[in-house]
Amino acid sequence: MRNDNSLTDMDEQFDLQQDISHKINRKTKPLQALGQLEEIAYRLAFIQKTLQPKLDNPHIVVFAGDHGIAESSGVSAYPQIVTQQMVLNFLRGGAAINVFCKQHQIELKIVDAGVNADFTESTGLINCKIRKGTNNFLYEPAMTMEEATLCLKKSQQIVDSIFAEGCNVIGFGEMGIGNTSAAALIMSQLCNLPLEQCVGRGTGLDDTQLHQKVKILKAAKAKYQHNYTPLEVMAIFGGFEIAQMSGAMLAAYEKNMVLLIDGFIASAAFLVAYQINPQIIKNSLFCHLSDEYGHQALLDFLKVRPILKLNLRLGEGTGCALAYPIIQSALLFFNEMSSFEEAGVADKVKI
What we know:
It is built from 13 helices and 6 strands.
């Protein structure tokens, strides 16, 4: 039996839902004429428990890390050193995510979660390195449980710092050669789906290379046949950047921030966070449908609809940056568009 307080909370929640829906439906438009923008506006208002939601000091955090599985020939079209090179490109402002964040006035943070390289202290990089890349999970778990737990703690500290800057909306991106392999195995394990439904071309493999990638990942999965907790699955197959993304998502939810989820890798990180705390989905907007093969099935598993479909498969949080102005538009119509009463516009004829 629920106590009186929980019943009061439920009543207040129901009243808020009714008020948000009423405000959307009384705007000067036919019912549901703004389509998915109405869903986004509703979500923003409900997350913040207000009829005047706002988006403050938006951030995107890109976590970078290297993967031991990249040592296995055939899982990536690019060598592992590209992770380090792309981190330097981020720091110089030359990547796609830099361009899009600048365009939409989004603060960008870059995190070294476990890149197989040393960076100078003056680069502006947030140093959360666990170590220089994970183990090759074809032979042993990618990380220890202690390392996986440390990833969660370190990323929580990052989110705490960003939240303290007045940020209430945060997106998540990644960089790590080999991380589509890690994400595919996490998805296969936690969604109980055949690996073939989860593995894609990653950095652009051809058909022969894709077949080899599936073969390698099947061999890796066969080594681990028990039932594992979500964090254990992360420790076995994940990357330090994926684990830190999961931790950051959990921490952002605890701060009641709006979470912007990018593509396939970020969604796999979200999957782990979701299975640790299913309530996190209430605060999350899925920004785009990736062209990576397994992403649609992963979104179907989570029962969510993405905002964009642009055939992206870049990562870096680019989908979050591109979706952000649409999310802003949803906020602006909800807050600033006139109602029928305010505009003196006749409502539909009652039949």
